[in-house]
Every structure is written in structure tokens, then in C-alpha cells.
Amino acid sequence: MPLHQFRFACIVLVWWLCWRCSAAEDPSRTPDIWDYRVELQTVLQHDDGQFLWYHPRVAAIPAEGGHVSSLVMMTLQKHLHVSDFYSGLSVMQTCDLGGTWAGPVAPAALDWSRDGDVVVSVADVTPGWHGPTKRLIAVGARVRYGTRGQQLEDQPRAQQTAYAVYDPAADAWSAWQQLRVPDAPQFNFARSACAQWLVDPDGTVLLPFYIGPSATAPHIVTVMRCGFDGRQLTYREHGNELSLNVERGLVEPSLIRCGPRYYLTLRNDVRGYVTASDDGLHFAPICPWQFDDGSELGSYNTQQHWLEHRGALFLVYTRRGAQNDHIMRHRAPLFMAQVDPQRLCVLRATERILIPERGAELGNFGAARISDGESWVTVSEGVWNSEARRRGATGALFVARILWPARP
Question: Mean of the pLDDT values across residues 26-48?
Fold first, then answer.
């Protein structure tokens, strides 16, 4: 190549790289919009007035030995028809992407235990795969229940975070272990519950928590970095503490990494909030969730969760304004929309219903990546009255399979 052509090519390359960098940092640039296909499956149905299957969440265990599909493990619990009263943990699994399921079964290691008249369970569980050790970790809130199913704060640090470890090679679960957190008053109540969490490239685990001096104080959110050796999670450090002195404060945070940044969505009784971070520990001041037109999202007192696909960010949520005033806290239908990661807003034109409303609430759900081409959102119908049944609710456990195309 002649020298003048080489110089021209270099100039063009530098210009292109500068344009790409400036476009990536331009807050007015709209992200590439992804389309996708949704297949809705019903895994099981149960509504006998005694319990409902609840909090179904999944994690994929990568295939080995020539197997085409990953093993997908689902954790779920019985809601015992008293507010937030849950059984021990059960599991289901599929090796053919939901074509067939085994379970639910209740491993003895994951059952609740008794302390005199008190029942101790681990609720609000989210499983996740830890690739460096080839173990699955299930993380949830350790809760003490009284004889009527009420949550107790009857001893110091009654409500903490616990975890159990699944070894696929041995097909065995460990017993529940409590994660030891700093000995400071703000950790007297310390839950990583209903929380999406991450494994960083170095193998450390980032766990979002909501903490406080007691169960009744307005809660504060922080993210803890933990080590994991295949058997035990150990606290190393935590980031800044995010607070909001409104009702119960901030609870049930969920964390995701998209590109080089980390994003945190937070539940509050009045509205949902969002923030971002460069290191996964130190987050910017929170802001309310909004649509891109500046109007409020309308999600409140309910979880929101994330999905990420090839640098695109998505939020799964419930909200007001969907002809759903008859649903408790407007917790159905279940929506998904793409998020603008620069402006931290939901792109209204991308909103879709993943799981329709049938008279039951759908607020306690999970969202997880299954493979490069597929993500799942999982939820069970909360059937609390005959009106929900009249509208079609059956206590169904749904899996919404999101099938991604090759490109946007």
C-alpha cells in the first residue's frame, strides 16, 4: 500500500474510533432496539387452599461432556397462606429447556429447622451459578417464624442471610449456612433476598443487601463483595449505603452488569428506584424509574428484575395503568421493556407483556440468563380470593422463555 493511502486509512480508522467512543458516551443516543420471541410455558398448577408454589427462580448449570442443553435448576417454596410464611426449599430441574421437568422435590438439607416453638426457614431465594468452582449457590433470607407463621425478631440478628451450595457432580446440596456480616448495628437486620446477584470475572460474588438496625427501621441498601471457595461465602467489603427515609426505605435490590457498568434497581413502597456504578460497590444517588417521555413508570412496592443481552439492558416489572386496579398493588401483568443505560429510563415503545394478568398477582418473580440465545422469567400466580379464580387464575407456575434473535 502506498504511504499516502496508508496515512489516509489511519486517519479514517482514528476518526471511526473517536466517533464510536463519542457515540457510546452520548446520552442522547438511543440504544439499538432488540426484538425477541416469547414462549410461555406452564410448569405446574396448584391451588388447594393449603399452599401455593411461590418464588420460582432458575439458574443454568452449563452443559458438559457433549450435552447440548444446560441443566436448569429451579428453586421454589410453598407459601402457606399466611403473609410471607414459607416452607423449606424445594427444587425442580429440566435438561431439555423446559420440555420436561423433574420434581418438585424437597431435599432434606434445605428443609426448615426448629428452635423450640420457633420454625427457621430460608425464604426469598435466588440461585446462581459460580463458574470458577462449578457450584450453584442459593441465597436467601433466614427467617424465624412463630406458631402462627408470623416473622419474629425474638433474638439478636434474628433475620440474616443464608446460603446453600449445590454440587452437580455429586448431585448434592449442603446444609444452610449463615453469611457472617460485620458486627455493627446497621447489620442487625441484613437480607440479601429476592435479589439478583453477580459473579465478577475474578470469582468474587457481589450480593445486594438491604440492612438496618431492626426489622422496622427504614432499610438501607448496599452491595457486599464476598469470596467463595466452593463451600463458604465470606464477607470482604461493602460499598456505599443508599438510603431513602420513605415508608420502609429501600428493599429487595437487584444487580446486573451490562458492558462495563453495574446497575441496581430498588423497591420502595411508593415507587421503584434505579442507580448505576462503575465498580459494582459505589453507586450514584438513586433516581425514580421513569419512561423516556419523563412520566413515572408506576412500579411500586414490588420487585423489579433485570435481563441483559449482548450489551442491551432490560427491566422486568409490574406497574399501574394497565387496567389492573383489581390486582393487589397492581402486581400483574408482568412487563418487560428495554432500558436506556445512559439516561436510566425505560423505553416506552419497547414495553411488552411477558405474562398476562388472570386475576392473580405476579409480583414475586425471577429473571435469569439461560444461554447466549435465551433468557427466562419465572413466576407463580398468587391466588388469594375467588375473584382471582373467576378471572382464570389456577395457581400456575409460568416460565416465559425469551428467545433472542442473532442481532437487533
Answer: 89
